[in-house]
Amino acid sequence: xxxxxxxxxxxxxxxxxxxxxxxxxxxxxxxxxxxxxxxxxxxxxxxxxxxxxxxxxxxxxxxxxxxxxxxxxxxxxxxxxxxxxxxxxxxxxxxxxxxxxxxxxxxxxxxxxxxxxxxxxxxxxxxxxxxxxxxxxxxxxxxxxxxxxxxxxxxxxxxxxxxxxxxxxxxxxxxxxxxxxxxxxxxxxxxxxxxxxxxxxxxxxxxxxxxxxxxxxxxxxxxxxxxxxxxxxxxxxxxxxxxxxxxxxxx
Length: 251
What we know:
The chain is of the alpha+beta class.
């Protein structure tokens, strides 16, 4: 195996992977409640380091080069996004930790997207149709002939009376959440969810926590790294070609 070509190839693959993650973040910079992904990598151990058998011979020079880099599963950055006033009484943003609970295909899902709408039958849903759940895990149905308001504790009132309370929960270990798209998260075990004490802001939505300037800067850096590794492959290929065709020529 030609070590230099292998190392440059892993550099191209990891840089391309990083570009994909950053590009997706940029594409969702205006998506309410979106949480950016962070591309993670780790150094690949050399064969001698992986075997860890005493007495195995290895070249100390090549060992110092390492075994390249490997991509790891992305990590979700749950930093809170900025608040944006919407003016709609059914729009709600969570201040601090916590997630709204919704029902999607008979499964309980979590979301930070608080842009709620009232369906024709009075059910409170997300824009994509998922039913918003109350503190007891049941769909919320409102009277269609009366305006609704939501307070800081998530209580929904109509005609001066509390008719429901939004289900807002905390997750002890956010690393167990899986992105499903559409602003939804799957939780590994719904039994581990606990009621959240976070305050809500009615008439506001939480913006994406993506900083377009930072993401664009990192995207340019990933592009430079990819190009640098591609140039290294071309250089090594040219060197090998000369070695075979010129130096190794039998006169």
